Input
Amino acid sequence: MVIRVNYNDPQTDDEEKALAKQYGVGYQHTFVQIDQQGNEVTKWNGGSLKELLSSIK
Output
């Protein structure tokens, strides 16, 4: 699963701030892939859809 979190913008709510902190997101265009237990599998910054799909493990 890949999650999207609003980060540091007017739409960011408390739950998203907590997710950003939990997964060490410090940049707006950060993607985090997690497993079914919520453990981080991989993390990367930015990129096109093609790059995003190739980053998923």
Summary: Helices lie at 14-22, 49-55.
